[in-house]
């Protein structure tokens, strides 16, 4: 049973995940380097902690939702970090989108402490985190996944076993690489058609009933005014930031080098989002790629 849960990283994703755990009656001890994130959730009923050790001490499960590789590695391995205070028999689930090697490094260190590590990145974004409909992609032992599944289902609607340690992250990175590429493809196609004089709505309709159809064209079209409820129709605010997709494509780049798998489109996409990030578009939704291409057009 999970009578105490530690949660570290209370940002856009972590905060609603904690709220959903509490809604299902769980006691959650929370920590973030930003104090206001802690006090915010403490007001909502969580136990606010002023250190990682305090959140981890005595917890049956510890979930981390941190920005990138170095934050996860540090939070686990530094003095006063998770591995120092984790109790025997506890489950450690990292839901951050990081390099698969992070999981492969931390899993054996957790085992030495008598704890069980799983990589469990999520898809569904902040909307899914709020609604409690995330999909967890799990890497580690399948029998261990089964034990934490009820806990994860407080925050998500699907838990999928992907393979040994790191494979949850491989699945996540492959998906995000494809999203990064497909968004650029749709932005390029829409911009081309519009520049040639095509009505954007008619063009979108054609794409969405033809072979170019994909999530980026149909559910998340990057041209403002095509779909009223998505970030492209709200000055690219919220959604999935350019800096985050650039980070994920950077991970794809690293693992592609290690594996020998060529990712020419993924590499190109990585460079394009990096350039957009350098042009101060890092906080904008990734669909801003359309506006970026439009502005480069003559
Ligand atoms: P975020 O930046 O909003 O939140 C991260 C939080 O971690 C921040 O509150 C930050 O203060 C905290 N933090 C940083 N270093 C810390 C440390 N050493 N100790 C404690 N807290 C620390 O990011 P997010 O959008 O919540 O994303 C978290 C992870 O989930 C990322 O890896 C991201 O790629 C992934 N992800 C995000 C989305 C999304 O739509 N936002 C969707 C799926 C996956």
Automatic annotation (TrEMBL):
<dbReference type="GO" id="GO:0006574">
    <property type="term" value="P:L-valine catabolic process"/>
</dbReference>
<dbReference type="InterPro" id="IPR029154">
    <property type="entry name" value="HIBADH-like_NADP-bd"/>
</dbReference>
<dbReference type="InterPro" id="IPR002204">
    <property type="entry name" value="3-OH-isobutyrate_DH-rel_CS"/>
</dbReference>
<dbReference type="InterPro" id="IPR013328">
    <property type="entry name" value="6PGD_dom2"/>
</dbReference>
<keyword id="KW-0809">Transit peptide</keyword>
<dbReference type="Pfam" id="PF03446">
    <property type="entry name" value="NAD_binding_2"/>
</dbReference>
<dbReference type="InterPro" id="IPR015815">
    <property type="entry name" value="HIBADH-related"/>
</dbReference>
<dbReference type="InterPro" id="IPR036291">
    <property type="entry name" value="NAD(P)-bd_dom_sf"/>
</dbReference>
<dbReference type="GO" id="GO:0008442">
    <property type="term" value="F:3-hydroxyisobutyrate dehydrogenase activity"/>
</dbReference>
<keyword id="KW-0101">Branched-chain amino acid catabolism</keyword>
<keyword id="KW-0560">Oxidoreductase</keyword>
<comment type="similarity">
    <text>Belongs to the HIBADH-related family. 3-hydroxyisobutyrate dehydrogenase subfamily.</text>
</comment>
<protein>
    <recommendedName>
        <fullName>3-hydroxyisobutyrate dehydrogenase</fullName>
        <ecNumber>1.1.1.31</ecNumber>
    </recommendedName>
</protein>
<feature type="domain" description="6-phosphogluconate dehydrogenase NADP-binding">
    <location>
        <begin position="4"/>
        <end position="163"/>
    </location>
</feature>
<dbReference type="InterPro" id="IPR006115">
    <property type="entry name" value="6PGDH_NADP-bd"/>
</dbReference>
<feature type="domain" description="3-hydroxyisobutyrate dehydrogenase-like NAD-binding">
    <location>
        <begin position="166"/>
        <end position="292"/>
    </location>
</feature>
<dbReference type="Pfam" id="PF14833">
    <property type="entry name" value="NAD_binding_11"/>
</dbReference>
<dbReference type="InterPro" id="IPR008927">
    <property type="entry name" value="6-PGluconate_DH-like_C_sf"/>
</dbReference>
<dbReference type="GO" id="GO:0005739">
    <property type="term" value="C:mitochondrion"/>
</dbReference>
<keyword id="KW-0496">Mitochondrion</keyword>
<comment type="pathway">
    <text>Amino-acid degradation; L-valine degradation.</text>
</comment>
<dbReference type="InterPro" id="IPR011548">
    <property type="entry name" value="HIBADH"/>
</dbReference>
<feature type="active site">
    <location>
        <position position="172"/>
    </location>
</feature>
<keyword id="KW-0520">NAD</keyword>
<dbReference type="GO" id="GO:0050661">
    <property type="term" value="F:NADP binding"/>
</dbReference>
<dbReference type="GO" id="GO:0051287">
    <property type="term" value="F:NAD binding"/>
</dbReference>
């Amino acid at each position: 049973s999970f009578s105490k849960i530690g949660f570290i990283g209370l940002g856009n994703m972590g905060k609603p995940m904690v709220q959903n755990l509490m809604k299902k009656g769980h006691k959650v001890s929370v920590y973030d380097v930003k104090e206001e994130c802690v006090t915010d959730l403490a007001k909502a009923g969580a136990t606010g902690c002023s250190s990682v050790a305090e959140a981890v001490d005595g917890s049956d499960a510890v979930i981390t939702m941190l920005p990138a590789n170095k934050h996860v590695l540090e939070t686990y391995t530094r003095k006063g970090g998770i591995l120092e205070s984790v109790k025997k028999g506890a489950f450690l689930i990292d839901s951050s989108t990081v390099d698969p090697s992070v999981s492969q490094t931390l899993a054996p260190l957790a085992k030495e402490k008598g704890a069980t590590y799983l990589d469990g990145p999520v898809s569904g974004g902040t909307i899914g985190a709020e609604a409690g409909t995330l999909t967890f992609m799990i890497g580690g032992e399948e029998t261990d996944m089964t034990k934490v599944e009820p806990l994860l289902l407080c925050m998500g609607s699907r838990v999928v076993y992907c393979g040994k340690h790191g494979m949850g992250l491989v699945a996540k990175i492959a998906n995000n690489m494809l999203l990064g590429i497909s968004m650029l493809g749709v932005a390029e196609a829409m911009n081309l058609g519009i520049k040639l004089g095509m009505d954007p709505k008619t063009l979108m309709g054609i794409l969405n009933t033809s072979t170019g159809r994909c999530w980026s064209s149909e559910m998340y079209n990057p041209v403002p005014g095509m779909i009223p409820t998505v970030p492209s129709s709200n000055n690219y605010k919220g959604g999935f930031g350019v800096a985050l997709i650039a980070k994920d494509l950077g991970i794809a780049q690293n693992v592609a080098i290690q594996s020998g798998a060529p990712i020419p489109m993924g590499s190109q996409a990585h460079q394009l989002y990096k350039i957009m990030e350098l042009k101060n578009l890092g906080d904008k939704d990734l669909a801003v790629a359309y506006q970026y291409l439009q502005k480069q057009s003559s």
